[in-house]
Amino acid sequence: MSQSFRTQLVFTIKDRCRVCYTCLRECPVKAIKIINGQAEVINDRCIGCGNCVKVCSQGAKVSLRSVDEVYKLLSSGHKVAACVAPSFPAEFNEIKDHRSLVGMIRKLGFDYVTEVSFGADVVAKEYEKRITSADYTGDISSDCPAVTYFIRHYHPDLVGSLAPIISPMVAMTRIVREKYGADVKIVFIGPCFAKKAETAETDEVITFLELREMLQQSGINTGNSEPKDFDPPEGGKGAVFPITRGLFLTTNSKEDIPEERTVIADGRVNFKEAIKEFEEGLIRNKHLELLCCEGCIMGPGTSPGGKKYARSAAVGKYVRQKLDNLDQEQWEKNLAEYSKIPLMQHFEPEDRRFEIPSGDEIQDALENMGKFTAKDHLNCGACGYDTCVEHAIAIVKGLAETEMCLPYSIEKLHDSIKNLNISNEKLATAKAALKQSEKLAHMGQLSAGIAHELNNPLGVITMYSNILMDEAPEGESIREDLRLIVEQAERCKKIVSGLLNFARKNQVNLTETDVIQFTQHSLNSIIKPNNITVKFEPHIDDPIAKLDIDQMMQVLTNMEKNAIEAMPFGGELHVGVEGNKMDIIFIVSDTGTGISEENMSKIFTPFFTTKEMGKGTGLGLPLIYGIVKMHKGKIEIKSNTDPAKGATGTTFRIVIPRNMD
Fold this sequence. Notes:
The protein is of the alpha/beta class. About 40% of the residues lie in helices and about 15% in strands. It has helices spanning about 20-25, 50-55, 65-75, 90, 100-105, 115-130, 145-155, 170-180, 210-220, 245-250, 270-280, 310-325, 330-340, 360-370, 390-395, 405-470, 475-505, 515-525, 550-565, 620-630; strands at about 10, 30-35, 40, 60-65, 80-85, 110-115, 185-190, 205, 260-265, 285-290, 510-515, 530-540, 545, 570-580, 585-590, 635-640, 650-655. The strands form six sheets. It has a five-stranded mixed β-sheet with strand order 12-14-15-17-16, covered by helices on one side. Strands 6-5-7-8 form a four-stranded parallel β-sheet, with helices on both faces. Helix 17 (about 475-505) packs across helix 20. The two termini are about 85 Å apart.
């Protein structure tokens, strides 16, 4: 038997891989490496079971193709024999007479077409002698190459427990050469990829799918080929070999082998579990009949979509017909003749296990996936590995990626969406602020021009009104008229001063200030109605910052007064101070009526006010904006007027740098 693969059996077509990890999940030895999201087969670890090919819905995993090599053999001038695996009735169940299939294979150019079931008969007899011997202590069947590769590579200590008996394919290869000549070329046709690397004694191996391809390419069908019988020696009960329990049924022809001495397991999970229990000594005295597939009838080289029990029934029907027509005397004569061929083989361990990383390395990989405690280990299998620890080990060994963890990737996606929403919100706020700033900048230029033009005539009016008032006799009505002129002129002057404060770019006089005491003082400077509850909430470790005390006092008192006026029926005024290393944040929040959405873009516009006529000039918030702007700060506003959406009210956040220098 070959001690290593002659060539790679399974390949990845990268453009087709959709990163579903199904191949990794189905691989019994995890011989798949994920690189940049692409699943690649690791040939040194592969056992050739073909599970990845069977389960890949995108066709990204393909097997080694041997059709061209077989065509070369057929045209080489040598005699070529086809050895057909006994699972053929399961694959070609549309061909009702096996003789038609034999004729089609012959028409391809094969000189002989033989049935591997006779090789199974010979091998089964050897197993029967071994299992029924008095000194039998239990072993593992070696007819499935994927199972033998698995033991040699991943349980090398059990190599001595592999039954030292050749497979039916190798047995039939030797029988054909014994009967038809040593120089005959042999092509095995069956359901298995791993057979392509099992032995060098067989010249080529093709799967049933490849045989279908050759028949289609050559235009051969039942209508244009002549039915033929299999070339001798004819197989017997070995035809049942490919189904689950096949070896047991073949050997148990006289029901003289107690079934309890044999453990039968198939499929990627079951065969591994049986080997594990055998290694642990739980079933050490039994014979393990193991198949990597769910019977050879479901091998990776068969047509996809086949039904297991329908295929099993097709094999059973063929076996019954065969046994009904079997020349028992000739079969026994052939069995006696060819049982003399060498049936023993020796297996060498070829350890391909990798060293388990240290606990710290595994823990680091787990923590990178957000798994800090045992409760975080979901073991969901979405990554393709059975446990989170196995995934972490694969990451450390460079076989897997952190992003393969589905819960981790979903959590990252949620965080990304959350951060994106925050960024979008900040961008929208910044865009609105920029638009408002541009509008206010134009308004500031206009206001500055108006204020400059009005200041001089207002000064003249005020000066001459005062002169005239001083010259007017006491008690005269004109004196009262002049006093009214002076008052209104002063009011106009204040309005102009407000315009200048809104538009000005004056220097601020910075002073180190304790913002907690400063904010408390602002609250003490306003009149608080009895139906208003005031709560001061300082949350700051370092309260010292540089501010223009007079101007920032205007800001806070104006905002506090506005908040109180927004709560005519009472409510709560919350004033807070927060901060970090860079900024001081003043927060003024009320439970009043709120600012409507249509007015939010207008509140910093000079002369815009929602107050009644005569109760406001509309310059308070523009003044606040101008002062905050001079402090290189910003104002953020949130407001709600709809009780259905939550508590109504408005919150102003004023962010001022701690130090403008």
